[in-house]
Design brief:
Length: 299
């Protein structure tokens, strides 16, 4: 296809070697042509100059503004129907985009949210394949990965949230993109998923055959984090972990007949009740210190 299929958002913060490898993998391993949009946070390592030389669409901030503002800025450059979020420390594998686009073409409308499946060296997860092909540019075993990445069995899964993920731009606009109150970005991905659910999206699918390698360079270790876990709880009245397990069925294999269904409403209400108690306890201890200080002395 000569026309771009996805508008790929890549926020990057002084991570040029990984960004170069990420872009190289898109060019080398994609089935289709895509629009690449990069947000350059600071760019003190030469990222801005390199992006300009390559002729990519980009946005720029002279300081690190976090993922939420970065994502919303990149939205102003979109030229396709589909917005795809990719971390700058990811390496896409052959046919990653074909699998996603085939799934999109099979949908009857734009009410979907799809994720690719991540292979990474360290952190485990129910929808993550743990396999070590290096966590630095120098230790990366590219040829070995390209030979073996299909060998790991995994079923399609419920609960698309983490990147790489793709959504129609109209749906993105209706829910308002990324919520900037989560800046610099902890729990902004789960919040995006929750907004999709409450808007009416029910098709949250992770595709096993669409695979990427994630180096886990953890840019988040360089920033002062927002307390996203509590922000999510206060906003939605339920913890992120319970929302993903009970509502979007995260950790379960994908079963078409279960699309749009949740776990029993009573279980969700019970979880929300205890989640609110947890939030109240946190706020009280944050304001007044440990609550045991107010207990009457034991006789």
């Amino acid at each position: 296809m000569e026309q771009n299929v996805f508008s790929i958002f890549i926020p990057s913060w002084n991570n040029l070697p990984f960004l170069k490898l990420c872009v190289e993998s898109i060019k080398k391993n994609s089935t289709y042509q895509h629009q690449i949009i990069i947000h350059v946070n600071e760019g003190k390592d030469g990222t801005l100059e390199w992006v300009k030389e390559q002729g990519f669409d980009y946005t720029y901030s002279p300081q690190n503004i976090g993922v939420c503002f970065s994502m919303n800025m990149m939205r102003t450059k979109v030229k396709t129907d589909y917005i795809l979020f990719l971390n700058d420390d990811m390496y896409v594998l052959p046919e990653w985009d074909k699998v996603l686009y085939d799934e999109i073409k099979a949908q009857k409308d734009n009410m979907f949210f799809l994720s690719a499946t991540t292979i990474q060296p360290h952190t485990q997860g129910s929808s993550i394949i743990v396999a070590d092909y290096g966590d630095t540019i120098e230790s990366f075993q590219e040829e070995k990965l390209l030979k073996e990445y299909k060998d790991y069995p995994l079923a399609d899964w419920f609960g698309a949230t983490l990147p790489p993920n793709v959504v129609h731009r109209d749906v993105w606009d209706i829910i308002g993109g990324y919520s900037v109150e989560y800046s610099p970005g902890m729990y902004s991905d789960p919040d995006f998923t929750a907004k999709l659910w409450f808007y009416g999206v029910r098709y949250f699918k992770g595709l096993s055959a669409s695979r990427v390698y994630h180096f886990e360079t953890k840019s988040t270790t360089r920033i002062k984090k927002n307390f996203g876990q509590m922000q999510f709880l206060m906003k939605w009245g339920i913890t992120n972990s319970k929302f993903r397990r009970l509502v979007t069925r995260r950790d379960e294999s994908f079963v078409p007949e279960l699309v749009g269904t949740t776990h029993p409403e009573s279980e969700i209400k019970k979880s929300a009740f205890y989640s609110r108690l947890k939030a109240i306890y946190y706020l009280l201890t944050k304001s007044f210190g440990p609550l045991w200080k107010f207990m009457p002395p034991h006789k």
